[in-house]
Amino acid sequence: VVGPAIRAAASKQEPAPASDPSLSKYAGSYDLAPWGGELIVFPWEEGLAMVELPSSQPVAGLVRLRAVPGRPHHFRRVRENDVAGEPIDFDVDAAGRVLGLRRWNNPFPKVAMR
After folding, report:
1. Higher pLDDT residue, 114 or 74?
2. Nearest alpha carbon to residue 44 among 21, 81, 19
3. What is the average per-residue pLDDT within 54-64?
4. Is 114 a residue whose pLDDT tops 50?
5. Cα–Cα distance list, 84 to 65, 74, 88 (Å)
6. How far is CA 66 from CA 27, 47, 50, 57, 80, in A?
7. Rounded CA gap, 23 and 17, in Å?
8. Position with higher pLDDT, 34 vs 37
């Protein structure tokens, strides 16, 4: 899964840019009930990425997300042609904890990290 990114980073003379630390609060597992499985969200390149598990082809199923400027906790899927796709909204409480996300208006709660 990460082999191509490691090879690309190793071939570059300059260090890879650090991911935005503010994105780490969105990282984690989200419950895909009632369909089953889970959605994993993690920092990727300049934004976030997500992948549904279980999957026989996680790299092919990787979905990139880009933050929408001026709209906290609001992201858009990045299509193959780099155009913004459907919205992905994270539900965040007053303390700043991410409680879940909404995709196609379906709520998916974040699974507590231990």
Report:
1. 74
2. 19
3. 82
4. no
5. 9, 12, 11
6. 14, 5, 11, 22, 13
7. 14
8. 37
